[in-house]
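ok, trying the design again with the full structure, not the truncated one.
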C-alpha cells in the first residue's frame, strides 16, 4: 500500500469566548503598576483517547455522543478512515462537525481508495501544527522478525504498516500554548514498538500530553522506555494510554460513558502546570 504524507488541519472558528487576558496584556498592566506578575494559574483540561476502529462497532453519531458525555477538551483518535470503500466519509471531519470541535488529521496509509490514519479533535484552538507535525515512525523489517514472534503476535507481512506521531499545538483559555500528540504503535511485538517509542521520545520533547493505542501493556518495555525519557503513564486501560510529563497532574480519571469500539474510551481531567507551556 502507498504511504500518504499529507497532514490536514481544519478549524471551526475562533476559540471559546471568555478567555483570560493574554500574558502580554497582563505584563503591560504589571509594568505600569511595578508589581511582579502572578504565577500562571494551572489550566484544567479533559483529555481523552479512543481507537474508533473506523466506526465498525458504533456509528459516528454514537461515538460523538460518548465523547460529548465526557465533556472532553481534546480527543486523540486512532484507526480513522477518510473516504474509503468501507467508510465513504471523512470520519474525523464528521466527528468534528458533530462535536463542534477543530480537527487535525494525519493519514498514515492510502487504503481502499481513501486514507487511514490518526487525528486530534480540540475545542480549544489548534493554532499550529508544529514542525514535526506528522512524524513517520520506524517500519519493522518483517524478515528480521523471528518466526516464533510472528506466531505469538499473529503477524503477517501485510500487518507491517506505516505508523505516525501527530503533534498539535493548542492555545488554552489563558492564551498560553501547550503541545499534545497522538500515536498508534505497531502490533508485532516490542521488536517493532521499541524503535517507534524511541522516535517519539526524540521528536516529542516539548509535548506535554500524548495519548493513543500503544499496542502494549503499561508494565512492558515500551512504557519503561517512555518513562526513562521523562514521561509517566497517567491512565491506562489495556493498550490505550494517556501519557504526560511531570508538569501534568491527574485530577480525575473519567469513567467510560459507553462502549463504542473494541477499545475503551479513556479520559482524564488534568491540570496543566506552567512548566508545560511552550513558547
Amino acid at each position: 500500500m502507498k504511504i500518504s504524507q499529507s497532514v490536514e488541519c481544519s478549524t471551526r472558528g475562533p476559540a471559546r469566548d471568555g478567555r483570560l487576558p493574554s500574558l502580554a496584556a497582563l505584563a503591560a498592566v504589571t509594568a505600569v503598576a511595578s508589581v511582579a506578575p502572578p504565577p500562571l494559574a494551572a489550566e484544567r483540561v479533559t483529555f481523552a483517547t479512543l481507537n474508533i476502529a473506523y466506526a465498525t462497532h458504533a456509528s459516528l453519531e454514537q461515538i460523538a455522543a460518548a465523547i460529548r458525555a465526557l465533556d472532553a477538551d481534546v480527543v486523540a483518535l486512532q484507526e480513522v478512515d477518510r473516504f474509503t470503500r468501507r467508510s465513504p466519509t471523512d470520519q474525523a471531519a464528521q466527528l468534528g462537525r458533530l462535536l463542534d470541535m477543530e480537527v487535525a488529521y494525519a493519514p498514515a496509509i492510502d487504503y481502499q481508495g481513501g486514507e487511514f490514519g490518526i487525528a486530534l479533535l480540540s475545542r480549544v484552538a489548534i493554532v499550529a501544527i508544529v514542525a514535526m507535525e506528522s512524524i513517520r515512525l520506524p517500519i519493522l523489517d518483517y524478515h528480521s522478525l523471528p518466526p516464533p514472534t510472528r506466531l505469538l503476535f499473529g503477524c503477517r507481512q501485510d500487518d507491517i504498516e506505516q505508523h505516525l506521531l501527530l503533534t498539535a499545538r493548542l492555545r488554552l483559555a489563558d492564551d498560553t500554548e501547550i503541545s499534545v500528540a497522538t500515536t498508534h504503535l505497531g502490533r508485532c511485538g516490542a521488536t517493532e514498538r521499541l524503535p517507534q517509542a524511541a522516535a517519539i521520545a526524540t521528536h516529542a520533547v516539548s509535548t506535554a500530553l500524548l495519548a493513543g493505542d500503544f499496542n502494549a501493556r503499561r508494565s512492558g518495555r515500551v512504557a519503561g522506555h517512555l518513562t526513562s525519557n521523562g514521561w509517566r503513564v497517567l491512565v491506562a486501560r489495556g493498550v490505550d494510554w494517556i501519557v504526560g510529563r511531570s508538569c501534568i497532574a491527574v485530577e480525575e480519571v473519567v469513567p467510560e460513558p459507553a462502549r463504542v469500539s473494541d477499545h475503551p474510551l479513556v479520559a482524564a481531567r488534568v491540570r496543566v502546570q506552567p512548566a508545560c507551556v511552550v513558547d
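Keeping the full-length input from now on. The helical segments are 23-33, 60-70, 91-99, 147-153, 190-203, 221-228.
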